[in-house]
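call fold target=Sodium/glutamate symporter
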Amino acid sequence: MSLNFDFYATLVVIVLVLLLGFFITNKIKFLKDYNIPEPVVGGGIASIVILLIYSFGDISIKFDNSFKDPLMLTFFASIGLLADFSSLKKGGKKLIIFLFVISGLLITQNIIGIGVASAMGQNPLIGLLGGSITMSGGHGTGAAWASEFIKAPYFFTPATEVAIASATFGLIAGGIIGGPVARFLINKYSLKTNLEDNSSNEAILNFEEPQKEKLITPTSFIKSLALIGLCLLIGSYLSSWIKSSTGFTLPTFVYCLFVGVILRNTLSISKVHQVFDREVSVLGNVSLSLFLTFALMTVNLWELVSLALPILVILIFQVITMILYSIFITFKFCGKDYDAAVLAAGHCGFGLGATPTAMVNMQAVTNHYGPSHMAFIIVPLCGAFFIDIINALIINAFLYLPFFGH
């Protein structure tokens, strides 16, 4: 039996699940103390309930999927619209260091995945799919590469199932471990936010403090909504045009973010219009919370239940590696200060799942301990743009190893 929710019913369910996440997080001290994001709590509970209904009631619940992409693209467009060049310059040296740090993790994830798969006598493609393809790449990258591995010369037929299950596992794990890692580092080293360094950019602070009340007028809100719509329109068109013309593919959200950055700075330099950060941040935060809630509540947990032992072992190794890497590499090389602790939480988010998970991880930490201007400049750029390019190059390099007979 299949139970189908239309557009309106899906919207109601998403909002109720998110509100459930807020309610439970506020009531349970552990979740609050360890900075577990509300969308992860609500979406995780909903996915378990859906799994139980499917397992014991033989009822498959399907939601209207038309929400997912627009919400995700809106979030990334809002990040782009809040990224003025003067702020991006402040990332400076730490931005370059963080790029090297995340590149090191991509290589490490693939070495672990292929190594564990080979040690267990399994196809090394399982290890690659359980490596940077899905851990740092997420569902989109996983699905894209799986479609390639199904075809010649690989002919790995279960690639899609392995990719979806791995990305789902990583998405959940990334949302769970980020807050506790930051809490451990902050408490261990008695770290404090630098209020002086974190008070100069309202655009970034709007994402760090999503609960802060923001003044909004109908006219300015409509203008901000129009800017985001323009980012989605141009970004989607560019993605399709470049793919059909050159065969080069990048996720559509990368183009939307890039268009947002160009649009924000072009308008600012020309003094045609000043982007109203408050409205943009409200739209971005709402989209982020709803997207992550929907993504988690609609994951097929039965894919995880049916995972074979090898991929499960690989994923456990990846989670342990992410925890250790964020503590001993990310935190250390990014300065061993409060900003570095928040960066570590963000790295857990997109190192195992996706950039939206990284953002809610950091929001949960900064809501509790104070703002981190630098982290909210660096993570969206690296997690939403640079990592996809670097990951594609590294994956292609690994495919030329003798394991794969490329």
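return ok
The radius of gyration is 20 Å. The mean pLDDT is 85.
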